[in-house]
Amino acid sequence: MKKPFYKRWWFWAVVAFVVIGAVGSSLEAGQEPAQSPAPTVEITSPPTPTPTPTPTPTPEPEPTASPAPEPEAAEALVWIPQTGSKYHSSPDCSNMKDPAQVTLSQAEALGYEPCKRCFG
Ligand SMILES: [Zn+2]
Is 34 helix (H, G, I), strand (E, B) or coil? Predict the structure, then answer.
């Protein structure tokens, strides 16, 4: 009849060896930081290495002002009278009284038509 493995001497030898080894290593690892003095941060600024010079590409010429169409803000402004159906380029046209200044597209959206005197 064979002995169970846990009754063999070498089993316990191995267990003891493993346990001692594990405890010992854990103790060593745990104690080492506490024993070591506060690490004096010694900052010796190393000479900043000069960055490898990247080949500077030839600067592309700045694109000149693009001839893009003017934005809405620059839309032509016209004058619409209080009464009437024409919009004018001049507020003094047709003896308007208190004309309102709107954009040309707004005037057309409101149903106004160009004045034949201003907009020939
Ligand atoms: Zn007019």
Answer: helix
- Give the 3-state secondary structure percentages of the chain, helix then strand then coil, rounded to 5: 35, 10, 55
pTM: 0.40
Cα(100) to centroid(ligand 1), Å:
13
Mean pLDDT of residues grouped by 10 in the chain (120 residues)? 78 88 78 64 76 80 70 79 93 92 95 90
CA of 39 to the centre of ligand 1 (A): 88
CA of 95 to the centre of ligand 1 (A): 9
